[in-house]
């Protein structure tokens, strides 16, 4: 913690005496995610299922009042996501919005949340700006961020001698942030970025980008893309022979469902960083089994961490004696986070949740024992090493005074 950090936070984050009351006699939660587009498989209704499970596990009520859940499709468009969030805050009296699984939408909604003095918890967005230059008193970044993904995966590749990188990047806030963080880590570890290409969201043909990568002399293609775009890019790397030529794909954001869609024949050996895998231990397996009975498959890290985010919020409402945002946020920061996927997690003043991250490897087809037995945990990155240090943050709450 920076010297003076607590004073800086106190000067910037407002405080409010907790009132023993709940607005409108209901605590209302919204899940705002990609329900129909490129990220729907890894967020979508699976996030809604997990949020419902959290509410049911909490007993369906807090402070004697019912907990209500609504959800909506942000359509990966900032105008659509912001309009829906504004309606939820102004007309439907939503207390907290979770998910927000698109970085451009998350940045817009976080600023709106500040204006409305409510709470937003970005579960699936990746941009580090959420806890950097765009940080707000009531905004939390829950599961991961692009710095943590880049640091884990880039370090693993460079340790294998893969030092020359070419990035293929989604051309919007998420991709730009992921490439910037990846480039920073590559150079810090003595590697070299030999080129990059920008791809529009929902790209289907990566051939031109892959040709440029192959001609660049790169050892690694850093894929700063996600969802269906990642699936297409890795499959096409295999089809065009880049992997056979020894050019390693490095997925900077990859999830369980992506590996299954790619198939282990192509994905085997793929290294990436995650916050959760369903088959880590007895607790992760138990949650995954409950989730799968409802949703038909194990959860991604986003879907699993939605349970923890909603549960932590409800515990904070209970402890604060109110759903007023400043009092609830104070309790969320005060309480440690402990659940089936997080051990001794904590919330930093900039809204960054500090948790362990895990280096994953896609199994060989011969190693898989079932349909979803796709990954193995090959390393743990402690939370205080996984995320950008506080003294490098651009968030005013963490600046020296």
Structural account:
By secondary structure, the chain is an alpha/beta fold. Helix content is 40%, strand content 20%. The protein is built from 14 helices and 16 strands. It has helices spanning 5-12, 44-58, 78-90, 103-116, 146-159, 173-188, 207-215, 228-239, 256-262, 264-267, 282-295, 301-320, 325-334, 383-386, and strands at 27-33, 61-62, 65-73, 96-99, 119-122, 139-141, 164-170, 192-199, 220-224, 248-251, 271-274, 337-339, 342-347, 353-354, 357-362, 375-381. The strands form four sheets. The chain has a six-stranded mixed beta sheet with strand order 2-3-1-4-5-6, with helices on both faces. A hairpin with a 5-residue loop joins strand 13 and strand 14. Helix 5 (146-159) runs parallel beside helix 6 and helix 8 (228-239) runs parallel beside helix 9 (256-262). The longest helix has 20 residues, at 301-320.
In terms of topology, how is this protein built?
Layout: H1 5-12, E1 27-33, H2 44-58, E2 61-62, E3 65-73, H3 78-90, E4 96-99, H4 103-116, E5 119-122, E6 139-141, H5 146-159, E7 164-170, H6 173-188, E8 192-199, H7 207-215, E9 220-224, H8 228-239, E10 248-251, H9 256-262, H10 264-267, E11 271-274, H11 282-295, H12 301-320, H13 325-334, E12 337-339, E13 342-347, E14 353-354, E15 357-362, E16 375-381, H14 383-386
Parallel strand pairs: 1-3, 1-4, 4-5, 5-6, 7-8, 7-9, 9-10
Antiparallel strand pairs: 2-3, 11-15, 12-13, 13-14, 15-16
Helix pairs in contact: 2-12, 3-4, 5-6, 8-9, 12-13
């Amino acid at each position: 913690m920076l010297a003076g950090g607590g004073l800086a936070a106190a000067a910037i984050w407002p405080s409010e005496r907790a009132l023993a009351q709940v607005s409108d006699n209901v605590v209302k939660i919204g899940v705002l995610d990609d329900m129909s587009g490129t990220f729907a498989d890894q967020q979508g209704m699976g996030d809604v299922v997990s949020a419902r499970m959290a509410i049911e596990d909490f007993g369906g009520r807090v402070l004697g009042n019912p907990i209500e859940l609504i959800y909506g499709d942000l359509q990966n468009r900032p105008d659509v996501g912001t309009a829906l969030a504004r309606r939820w805050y102004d007309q439907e009296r939503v207390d907290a919005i979770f998910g927000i699984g698109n970085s451009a939408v998350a940045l817009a909604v976080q600023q709106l949340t500040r204006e409305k003095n409510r709470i937003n918890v970005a579960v699936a967005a990746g941009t580090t700006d959420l806890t950097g230059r765009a940080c707000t008193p009531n905004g939390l970044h829950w599961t991961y961020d692009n710095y943590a993904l880049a640091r884990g995966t880039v370090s693993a590749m460079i340790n294998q001698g893969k030092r020359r990188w070419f990035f293929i990047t989604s051309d919007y806030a998420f991709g730009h942030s992921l490439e910037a963080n990846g480039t920073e880590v590559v150079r810090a570890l003595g590697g070299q970025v030999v080129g990059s290409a920008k791809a529009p969201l929902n790209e289907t043909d990566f051939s031109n980008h892959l040709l440029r990568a192959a001609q660049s002399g790169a050892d690694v293609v850093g894929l700063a893309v996600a969802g269906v775009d990642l699936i297409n890019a890795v499959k096409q790397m295999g089809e065009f022979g880049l992997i056979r030529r020894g050019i390693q794909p490095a997925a900077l954001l990859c999830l369980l469902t992506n590996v299954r869609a790619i198939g282990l024949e192509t994905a085997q050996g793929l290294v990436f960083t995650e916050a959760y895998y369903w088959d880590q231990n007895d607790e992760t397996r138990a949650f995954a089994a409950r989730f799968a009975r409802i949703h038909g498959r194990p959860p991604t890290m986003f879907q699993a961490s939605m349970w923890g985010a909603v549960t932590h919020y409800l515990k904070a409402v209970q402890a604060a004696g109110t759903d007023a945002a400043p009092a609830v946020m104070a309790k969320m920061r005060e309480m440690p986070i402990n659940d089936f996927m997080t051990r001794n997690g904590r919330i930093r003043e900039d809204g960054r949740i500090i948790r362990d991250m895990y280096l994953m490897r896609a199994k060989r087809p011969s190693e898989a024992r079932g349909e979803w037995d796709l990954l193995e945990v090959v390393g743990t990155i402690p939370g205080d090493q996984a995320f950008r240090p506080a003294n490098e943050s651009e968030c005013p709450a963490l600046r020296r005074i």
